[in-house]
Amino acid sequence: MGTAVERFDDKARNVFDRFSTSDVYEGELLRHRPYTRFLHWMVALFFFLALFSGFGIYLPWLFRWFTPIFGGGPLSRAMHPWFGVAFCFFFGLQILNWLQLMRWTPSDSRWIRNLKGQMLNQEKLEAPDTGFFNAGQKLQFWEILIGSVLFLITGIILWIGAGTFGRITVAVSYVLHDISALIMLFGIFIHLYLSTFGEPGTFHSMTRGSVSEAWAWTFHPAWYKEITGRDPRQAYEEARRRMEARRQT
Amino acid sequence: MSDRRTLQIKQISAHPGPIPGEGVQRDLEVCKLVDTTTCIGCKACEVACVEWNDMPFSPTTFDNTYQTMPETRWNFWNLIKFNEHQKQDGTIQWLMRKDQCMHCADPGCLRACPADGAIVQYANGIVDFQQENCIGCEFCVSGCPYNIPKFNQETKKVYKCTLCSDRVGQGLEPACIKACPTGCLKFGSKEDMKFVAEERAKQLKEHFGFENAGVYDPQSIGGTHVIYVLHDATQPELYGGLPKDPQIPWSYTVWKWLAKPVLGTLALFGLLGVCLHYVTVGPRRPQPEPPRKEDAHGNRG
């Protein structure tokens, strides 16, 4: 199975590379290829369409102003499942694209144990064994994967309705659908923050594909080593010395 | 709409803020009494319902019984259910029950509904669907213990018995009541109908040998505005699946009114959390970065 998926991924990546460019300049590294970026933004688009069309149905007395955006209640209701289907479709492709990188390793467990230090910004540099994705990113990936499966199952039950599945199945699905959405909503705030304000330089990797080398050796040292063949700590020390020298002149 | 405005509103589905015109007029709680012991299965009420509500013809399914169709439909709100019950002594009892919306005091459909104003409960107890506000999600179907709301695939709206709110609003009895030839259907205030029903149940017990005769007015949903006199009130399931103890799923009671806003707020704490993190702890920047000024916190500017 692995090889068929890999062949599919390679083909898709190459197709996108044929008409797409990434901006990688001196001192930068390519992080996300165009196919990955395309999938990410399609997932994001349909996630927010589904989220906002769902808000008006979830808590109408607070979010009733969301439904007019989608052309009123009946149209929000009619489109919400299709947004969800599109979200699951594109995230499904992203799963195939990223599954290799999302395998949990012992260094990820160590990363999680040091979560408090990460959150309080005590260590400026990530641990040297932090690869392409860190444990937090992997955790979010697996949360969305499980959440999407839950969305899909409960969503289809709610979509087709109590006439087919029985009223209790629908009532239970209704709660599970909500819980999945709440966990994902909580996670998306953290994702948005860390990819923009929280770790400057990250956002560009999803728009034009590249990150600075400094970004790479700071946040994903093992990946930096893999790509450049240089030692991330040493590269950092050299850059620091260069900066010192510039300041003294 | 205009002919319904005389009805006082008590509850509106998914409605923020107060109920318009609440408590302006007093209103009697109305009730439909169905005495299953005197129903002869003539289906005059079915015809009257279809006629008054001007419903289109609907092809039926013949299943070798007298029953018009297996269950109510979006355009067929009133159905006599025919059930043959074999008693312990081997004799057959033919049970007929008029199936329709029960107009619960605590309506599961209204609790489940996420569309503002799609379901209203009037002060007189009638629960009415307002199709112009319905979004077609069918949650009401899941909330209803009686399998009453029916979805129309073409209009994407849900329909059910209105208890002839248009007639009742004008001081008339519902169409089915008017058509009943045996007097098994009665209409009046809830108090009066309850009294008549209890009297009839007593009569059945004392004079006709139905020891378990009784009134069906389930208190698990606060009572209903359609009540039955049954030969055997201990086994309402015999009458085409009338639930003995109807329940609204906790998804639409506990979860919807407590957990939803609370957990929604908790999820929004994620937003508050990241904002506070940025302002206090601050972002992580690619290293190296220029050294910070020593007196950053001593400077009062």
Descriptive account of the structure:
The complex is a heterodimer of chains A (about 250) and B (about 300). With about 250 residues, chain A is mainly α. In chain A, about 75% of the residues lie in helices and about 0% in strands. Chain A has two domains: about 30-100 and about 135-210, Transmembrane di-heme cytochromes, Chain C (Fumarate Reductase Cytochrome B subunit, Up-down Bundle); about 115-130 and about 210-250, no CATH class. Chain A has helices spanning about 1-20, 35-60, 60-65, 75-100, 105-115, 115-120, 135-160, 160-165, 165-200, 205, 215-220, 220-230, 230-249, and strands at about 30, 210. Chain A has a two-stranded antiparallel sheet with strand order 1-2. The mean pLDDT of chain A is about 95. Chain A is built from 13 helices and two strands; from the N terminus they run H-E-H-H-H-H-H-H-H-H-H-E-H-H-H. Chain B is of the alpha+beta class and about 300 residues long. Chain B has one domain: Alpha-Beta Plaits, CATH 3.30.70.20. Chain B has seven helices and eleven strands. Chain B has helices at about 45-50, 110, 140-145, 165-170, 175-180, 190-210, 255-280; strands at about 10, 30-35, 80-85, 90-100, 120, 125-130, 150, 155-160, 185-190, 215, 225-230. A four-stranded mixed beta sheet of chain B has the order 9-2-11-10. A three-stranded antiparallel beta sheet of chain B has the order 1-5-6, with no helix packed on it. Chain B has a two-stranded antiparallel ribbon with strand order 3-4. The model of chain B is unreliable at about 1-5 (pLDDT under 50). Classes of the chains: A mainly alpha (about 250), B alpha+beta (about 300).
List keywords for this structure.
heterodimer, A: 249 residues, mainly alpha, Fumarate Reductase Cytochrome B subunit, two-stranded antiparallel ribbon, 13 helices, 74% helix, B: alpha+beta, four-stranded mixed sheet, three-stranded antiparallel sheet, elongated, disordered N terminus
